[in-house]
Recover the amino acids of this structure.
């Protein structure tokens, strides 16, 4: 009886189990369909296969125990027809073609297939730098890149001067070679008369089909330093007192003929006439001679020498190299004073020290009416953590006047008032235009006697884009912010890649080196911050004043909240930043990330760059200037993204150190990456891309990265600095 009962219960259980398998309604669901898909390697792009490239394709079978497929090909190229393997190698034809389809058919059921379309494209090449001036008898390095990215990076180079083979160029014409190529200006022609091309060794027509090659056009000049320049410089004297200089000079083929400078020292303001000096390039045999040299500016009081590196525009990035102190700066060709006319508003960012030697920062906007008056301006300040010490609670109102100097071209005098506070400045016209893509820029310096409300400061004024309405919606897109501050006797720097959404939300990632304490690739907000504290908000006045919540540490436990920064915009996603209250007094810039768009790749970062430290917040920073050569898929120990060049560094004994650089770089498609140096020592940096041209993609030879920023992530370095690199 008990056995029968147990048997009945077992039958009941089995019936119930069967009912559950049917979903409770007695209907058996259909078995999921069998399918085949074809995949290619992550580093291969089926829409851009280069001629003769081989690609291993893989068949992925879903919902079947079958383990093999047969392969077939429609279109150009070859495969091992009929293979039963789950992988197959496709070899592209020697000429471009489209409409290629590779099909994987399931063995045992020919109705189940998967396909992969392939397009075989021309290999295109681009030479960098694409436009450049080369000084007489000087040497310039060029690099080339072949696209698609995985095409062989071997080239046959040509160099023609007015249709005649260049007198001094290597490698020899027609010889297959990797990067770099070296040109020495030993030809006689005018204009963009030298053309340098690199054809892919896979391209039988070379550069005869100009659509396949982007050719560098070179102009020959007696000297790269020529014309009128504005310059700014800040640093520390041999007694570690803060100094700053802003001025102008005129050069005639490397000879300094005239100039003027305002200098802030521990004794106050000094003004000097620049009576002479020179620019002398390094030895012509050096492959960096077209981009490196020594600038000397001579006044009645002293002679100052700077080691400089030149970018493609001829801007000079400077570090002091005369043993009289340390610091860094920049000199740029002066734009015409005629551009400074009519109603124009300028955003500004100034930094320096108060009369106690503590760090101070100013940011604001100056509406100039074209008739010498400044009306309805605004300013925020931070003096060693005190946001009200200078002009009261920000934003402080500003008004004032500006007048051109009667004798010195490019020099203007400015008087600003805020309540009972009066401040005097000089500024010089630097680079730029009246348009928003390359806005007019001025270098400014305070000229008031230094006291507790008149700190010694200098910085930059940038023409504000007047086409914008400065509300939250104006800030929508990617930006890169570079910040520098103090941490006691040491420095605190960071780079942020952020995205504004037009609605007040800010997200992204940042790196920070705070006196040797490293925060690396910190994502903000964190997933746990469901109500994000990372926000931005425009002032109701829409003058360009915003509050951004930045830095902190959302990954820490407990979370470290972001700190508020005030930003005065010069345009969409760009402007000057100042932390509102911390004694670090972090100041810097926000820049829109790129004029182009799309996916960034290391191949778009090739070419020569001039790089130097920016304004430092402590005397312990050892300024450096470098010539960088970045190449893609080079030979030797670096096999993909390679870096070389020359580093000029001022050591703490005020000694100039000159050493070769070697290492590698990596770049994510979002525009951040790393640099790992192997020489002169093993050092690690993070890089953030600031500016691009063209719409970037894996097969666009016109896209190029123009500027990037770096910070040192060496934990043993308590005095890091932001480094700016320009193509």
């Amino acid at each position: 009886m008990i056995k029968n009962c147990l048997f009945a219960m077992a039958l009941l259980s089995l019936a119930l189990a069967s009912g559950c398998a049917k979903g409770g309604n007695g209907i058996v669901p259909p078995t999921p369909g069998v399918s085949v898909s074809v995949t290619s390697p992550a580093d291969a792009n089926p829409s851009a296969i280069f001629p003769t490239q081989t690609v291993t394709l893989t068949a992925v079978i879903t919902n079947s125990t079958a383990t093999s497929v047969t392969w077939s090909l429609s279109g150009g190229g070859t495969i091992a027809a009929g293979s039963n393997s789950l992988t197959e190698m496709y070899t592209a034809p020697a000429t471009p073609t489209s409409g290629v389809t590779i099909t994987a058919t399931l063995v045992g059921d020919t109705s189940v297939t998967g396909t992969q379309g392939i397009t075989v494209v021309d290999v295109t090449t681009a030479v960098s730098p694409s436009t450049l001036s080369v000084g007489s008898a000087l040497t310039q390095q060029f690099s080339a890149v072949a696209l698609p990215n995985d095409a062989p990076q071997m080239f046959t180079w040509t160099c023609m001067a007015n249709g005649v083979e260049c007198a001094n160029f290597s490698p020899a014409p027609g010889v297959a070679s990797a990067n770099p190529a070296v040109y020495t200006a030993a030809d006689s022609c005018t204009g963009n008369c030298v053309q340098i091309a690199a054809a892919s060794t896979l391209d039988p027509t070379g550069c005869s089909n100009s659509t396949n090659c982007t050719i560098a056009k070179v102009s020959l000049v007696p000297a790269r330093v020529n014309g009128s320049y504005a310059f700014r410089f800040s640093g520390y004297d041999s007694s570690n007192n803060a100094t700053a200089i802003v001025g102008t000079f005129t050069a005639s083929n490397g000879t300094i003929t005239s100039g003027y400078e305002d200098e802030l020292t521990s004794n106050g303001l000094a003004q000097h006439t620049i009576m002479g000096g020179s620019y002398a390039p390094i030895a012509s045999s050096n492959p960096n001679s077209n981009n490196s040299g020594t600038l000397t500016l001579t006044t009645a009081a002293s002679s100052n020498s700077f080691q400089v590196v030149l970018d493609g525009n001829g801007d000079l990035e400077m570090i002091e190299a005369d043993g009289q102190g340390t610091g860094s700066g920049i000199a740029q060709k002066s734009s015409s004073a005629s551009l400074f006319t009519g109603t124009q508003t300028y955003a500004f960012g100034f930094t320096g020290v108060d009369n106690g030697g503590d760090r101070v920062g100013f940011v604001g906007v100056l509406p100039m009416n074209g008739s010498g008056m400044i009306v309805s301006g605004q300013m925020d300040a931070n003096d060693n953590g005190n946001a009200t010490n200078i002009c009261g609670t920000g934003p402080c109102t500003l008004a004032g006047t500006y007048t051109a100097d009667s004798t010195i071209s490019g020099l203007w005098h400015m008087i600003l008032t805020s309540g009972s506070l009066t401040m005097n400045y000089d500024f010089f016209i630097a680079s730029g235009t009246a348009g928003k893509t390359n806005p007019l820029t001025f270098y400014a310096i305070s000229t008031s006697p230094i006291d507790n409300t008149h700190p010694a400061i200098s910085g930059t004024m940038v023409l504000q884009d007047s086409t914008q309405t400065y509300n939250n919606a104006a800030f929508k897109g990617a930006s890169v912010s570079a910040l520098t501050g103090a941490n006691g006797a040491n420095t605190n720097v960071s780079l942020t890649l952020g995205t504004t959404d037009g609605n007040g939300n800010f997200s992204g990632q940042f790196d920070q080196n705070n006196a040797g304490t490293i925060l690396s690739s910190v994502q903000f907000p964190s997933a746990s911050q469901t109500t994000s504290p990372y926000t931005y908000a425009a002032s109701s006045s829409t003058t360009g004043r915003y509050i951004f919540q930045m830095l902190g540490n959302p990954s820490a436990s407990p979370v470290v909240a972001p700190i508020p920064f005030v930003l005065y915009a010069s345009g969409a996603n760009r402007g000057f930043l100042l932390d509102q209250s911390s004694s670090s007094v972090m100041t810097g810039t926000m820049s829109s990330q790129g004029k182009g768009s799309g996916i960034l790749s290391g191949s778009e970062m090739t070419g020569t760059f001039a790089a130097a430290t920016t304004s430092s917040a402590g005397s312990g920073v050892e300024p450096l200037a470098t010539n960088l050569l970045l190449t893609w898929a080079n030979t030797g120990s670096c096999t993909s993204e390679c870096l070389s060049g020359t580093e000029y560094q001022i050591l703490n004994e005020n000694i100039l150190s000159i050493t070769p650089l070697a290492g590698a770089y990596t770049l994510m498609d979002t525009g951040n990456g790393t640099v790992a140096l192997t020489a002169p020592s093993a050092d690690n940096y993070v890089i953030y891309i600031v500016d691009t041209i063209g719409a970037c993609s894996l097969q666009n030879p016109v896209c190029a990265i123009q500027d990037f920023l770096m910070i040192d992530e060496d934990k043993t370095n308590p005095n890091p600095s932001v480094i700016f690199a320009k193509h």
Remarks:
- The helical segments are 2-21.
- Residues 1-31 have pLDDT under 50 and may be disordered.
